[in-house]
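Sharing a chain and its predicted structure for anyone who wants a worked example. Both blocks are below, sequence first, tokens second.
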Amino acid sequence: MLAAALFPVQPQLDVPNLGWSVVTVADGDPGLARAHADEIGELAWQHRREFLRDRTPVPDALRIARETDGGPVVLADSSDGTAGGAEGDSTVLLQALLESPVPGSCLLLITDREAVARCAAAGVGAEISLEVGGRLTPRFFGPVRVSGLVRTLSDGRFQMKLPPIPANRGLTAVLQVGEIFIVLSEKPVYTWDEECYRSVGLFPREAKLVQVKSPGGFRPIYEPFAKLILELDAPGPTDSNLARLPYERVTRPLFPLDAI
């Protein structure tokens, strides 16, 4: 044998023949390569249920946050993962916080060009009522009406630390709704490090609750100082509960959509 590789797949793709692949290379012995490919594929299949994630329902996550002394409590909203192709316009956590508040500063991220334009037109220091979020992914989310104070406006340019690359999310506004600070931006941005908040004057280390739209890339930055990290069980286009996604083109049967 010369080489062997297992190729997992981006599971939220709605394409025919969705699934994992194994590639093996042997020195002049196709039968040997095929046998090892079958062995590796079977090993992955036998462990398939270990790749499924148990996550925390949003109401439970907010209850746990309220019961946790100090912070920050980091909520990983991976179903709206901007690095995985989502637009970042989920309003699920915002709606839940409005209905069941968590005392202390709560930092959220929402992509909404129209809402940012409204904030910019009103200006820093203005009180404004408007709908935010849910415009780009209406299959999963809906807009939520809020009233708050326009805290800051920026051009949305900042330097990420993880990875160390420049980021540009377009015109950006911070809208304060009680103790909820919503970072509204024209475009989605990776949320792996603190700079998506620090660049607009918000500081995750001092907050009670911090939303990140990532399944795991945020951990190297946030784990050293987070009081607690919870993975949210929420809908969205990058949902890891694949049975909730509206697949139309995948080849069936397909685990975990089908009990095979």
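Comments welcome. DSSP finds six helices and 13 strands in the chain.
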